[in-house]
Every structure is written in C-alpha cells, then in structure tokens.
Model the fold of this input.
Amino acid sequence: MKDLYDKISFRISKVTTVAYSTSFSLGIKVFSRRFHDPIYGIYGFVRLADEIVDTFHAYDKEYLLEDFRKQTHRAIKDGISLNPVLNSFQHVVNNYGIETELVDTFLKSMEMDLERKDYDQRGYERYILGSAEVVGLMCLRVFLERDDKKYEELKDHAMSLGSAFQKINFLRDLKADYETMGRTYFPGVDLDNFGETERRRIEEDIERDFRHGHEGIEKLPPAVRRGVYIAYIYYYSLFKKIRNTPTSTLLSKRIRIPNIKKYWLLLRSFF
Done:
C-alpha cells in the first residue's frame, strides 16, 4: 500500500522544514493538526528548489532545476514520485486543487535566480510574485479546503503577506545576497551607496504590505488563523529590529531574532 510511503514522504518534508526554518515550524505547530502535513509538503518543495539555485554551486544548477521541474510535473500527473519531498508535494497539489500555474510561476522565479543579478521594477515584481506571493496562494488553497469563493476574497491579502515576508528576507540578507551571490533585488538600489531615502521607501512599502496582509489574517478560518498570525508577528518583529538597525550594520551582518525570543513571541501570539 502507498499509504506508508506517503506517510514517510510527509515526515521527510517535516524534517526538511524543521531543519531549515525554526520560525516557520513554530507557526505550523499551532495549526489544526490536519493542516500540518500539507504545509510541510509545500515548504519542503519550496526549500528544495531554493537550495538548487542558492547552494549547489559545484553542480550544474540549470540542469538540476530543469530536471526538478520535469520531476515535479511528472509527480503531479502520475500522483507519485520516488523523490519523497515531491511525492508529498504532489499529494497536496492534487488534494487541494492547487493550480499548476502557481507551481510554474514559483519555478520561474527560481530560474531567474540563475541568471539575474539585479532587477528593474518589473523584474522585481515578477520575482516576488513567483518566489513569495504564489507560495502564499498555495498555502491559502490548503487553509480554505477548496472554498473557491473565500479564496477569491482572501487571495490579494495572502499575496501581500507573502510579499512583506520576502521583502524582509531581502533586507535581512542584503550582505549575503550581494557579497556571495552578487544579487541586488531592490530595483534602482546601489548597495555601495545605499542611502536612508531609499531604505525608508522600501520600509514604507513593506509596511503597506503588512497592513493589507493583516486584514486577511482576521478572515482566515480559526483552525489556521493563529498559526498565520504567529508568522506575521515573527516577521513584523524582525522588521522592527531591522528598521531600528543602522544602515551600516545592516550591510555588514545578518539581522536575526534569537530562538529564545521566537518562543516568547509564540507564547505571546498564542495568548
């Protein structure tokens, strides 16, 4: 029976999630139990693709990503994959009606990371759409369990929240992206001359995304609302810490929230 293999596949996606993201894992724990495996399945898939473009420098990343794309489509079509992470992901896609268009848009953004080192406004928006906003939509499909009317009502809010999270990641990783990858995601920004005016413009944009995303959190089903709110609180706390960090420090180190504070935020958000 395939049930045992599916169970093992989701367990591997969970291990992947926990290993790569403490904050995301904490949020998932607060969801109603029936949502744990599907969200682990989405995160495991996203993490694998991101690793291909960000860390597998000794290998042909273009080939690996294209092979990953083909394996993903084959898994969704066949309803199985010998790659456990893809097997759990196809299970989520097929069970919750996640559009393959969302999957392809995400993979296209990963492909952009193979080629692009800086972005104009259009490219920046396309990258955020694929790398963050559609991931939020995949999760929303799971949270709403095929309620298409509610999905249409909340999709813009989910996209805004994903956008806010990604832009904060960009600010947090300014140094590593620029020095290690040679990437600058924010359009029209010269990190060698990164000024306060540009920075405030970016932060105001993130604040708008947060406000719009928060409106959607309040309308989510109770079974997932608290978990998404915890992710919101974590990222907003990180945003406040970044906002209070001098630009020179932001360009010289990665800003973090210590694990002990993450657990404190979890408790505060829960109650």
Notes: Residues 2-270 form a domain with the Farnesyl Diphosphate Synthase fold (CATH 1.10.600.10). The CA atoms of residues 236 and 263 lie 15 Å apart. The mean pLDDT is 90.
